Amino acid sequence: MSTLALAFDLGGTELRGALVERSGDVVARVSAPTMAGAGAEAVIGQIIALADRLLNEHPQARVIGIGACAPGPLDPKAGIVIGPPTLAGWHNVPLIDILSRQFGLPVRLENDANAAALGEWRFGAGRGAGSLVFVTVSTGIGGGVVADGHIYHGRRGLAAEIGHMTITGEGDRCFCGNVGCFEAVASGTALGRRATRLTAPGDGSLLRRLSGDGDVSARHVVEAARAGDAAARELIEAEARWLGIGFTNLLHLYSPDLIVMGGGLSNGFDLLAPGIRATVEQRAMQAYRDVPIVPAELGDRAGLVGAASLILWEGEPGTALAMGQDEETKNGAGGQSGVREASHG
Ligand SMILES: [Zn+2]
Asked: What InterPro entries is this protein classified in (predicted)?
């Protein structure tokens, strides 16, 4: 068996573990509901139990290290989980120290959005790009930036908190306390809230029928829009405009080779893409308008394979292949422009 990394993706609801190859292939996967209210010690116990299970089931595996990702804020260099809002009792937990002592292996830690960005860049929709911005749109909005072949960290690894850039002066208050955050107006939660306000229980609308007369979610809006529902289509149009405004800011700030959109709302990417593209073309300066905006390819394993690559690809910014593809794109032979569908395989 080839060289492997143990990978963990510590989420507020699910804890995932995997054995990952250098190619990004997942050899084995395990998961458990995170004991998010039980404190750091209990959850670290869960991580150790999942690791033991993977190692026992694959005794021949040559594991050379552990790559882990967790919600921010965290300090990747110091290896400290600072205090994610979704995990009770985690305050400045030295996760790298704890896991390396337990297993006697090198451990690397990254914020989950950054790890997913790395995953999509090395193995997914961003393969071959020199720079990319990964945006995850679901309950909130998170992101990671790969700039010139490296994750852009900033002070204490806290860069690219793109959900909290201000993009308007109005709307609902964000959980961070501000008004007008990208996340507060463009997340899946915000879309669901707009749909809920637009309709009423028992009004017979498709949105309320899909939600069983409960609160309407972003998933219901996408489903209704696919069925041709006019109200849902308008909601999608407005959502695409907000995303397009946020993405325009990201283009101007980071000048990526592409933007990769993941998260739950990327299930409706094909519906949103024309509106996103139209907004970018309207608002971005000329030089930024043709940057591809594409859906993520790796789904919920992006964080795992990205975290694994911290170990398996350590010290390697990109690959020869990546540089080659970059040349191709630059010469116009890559054919990457505008919004394209995910290309698998
Ligand atoms: Zn905010």
From this structure: ATPase_NBD (IPR043129), ROK (IPR000600), ROK_cs (IPR049874)
Q: 18-73, pLDDT tens digit by residue?
A: 999 999 999 999 999 999 999 999 999 999 999 999 999 999 999 999 999 999 88
The model's pLDDT over 219-269, given as tens digits with 9 standing for 90+, comes to: 999 999 999 999 999 999 999 999 999 999 999 999 999 999 999 999 999
Q: How many Å lie between the centroid of ligand 1 and the Cα of residue 180?
A: 8
- The neighbourhood of ligand 1, an ion, using CB within 5 A, equals 164, 174, 176, 178, 181
| Distance from the alpha carbon of residue 279 to the mean position of ligand 1, in angstroms | 22
| Ligand 1 centroid, distance to 47 Cα (angstroms) | 30
Q: Are 33 and 24 in contact (CB under 8 A)?
A: no
Q: Residue 293 forms beta bridges with which residues? A: 259
State the Cα–Cα distance between residues 66 and 59, nearest whole angstrom: 16
Spell out the long-range contacts of 164-170 with Cβ–Cβ below 8 A and sequence spacing 24 or more. Answer: 165/246, 165/249, 167/242, 167/245, 167/246, 167/249, 168/245
Q: Measure 268 CA to ligand 1 centroid, in angstroms.
A: 23
Cα(300) to centroid(ligand 1), Å: 24
Question: What's the full length of the chain, in residues?
Answer: 345
Is the separation of the CB atoms in 231 and 199 below 8 Å? yes
Distance 207 CA to ligand 1 centre (A): 27
Give the pLDDT confidence of 2-25 residue by residue, as tens digits: 899 999 999 989 999 999 999 999
Confidence band, pLDDT 50/70/90 cuts, at residue 138: very high
Q: Give the residue from 288, 276, 36, 246 showing the smallest Cα distance to 142.
A: 246
Amino acid at 93: V
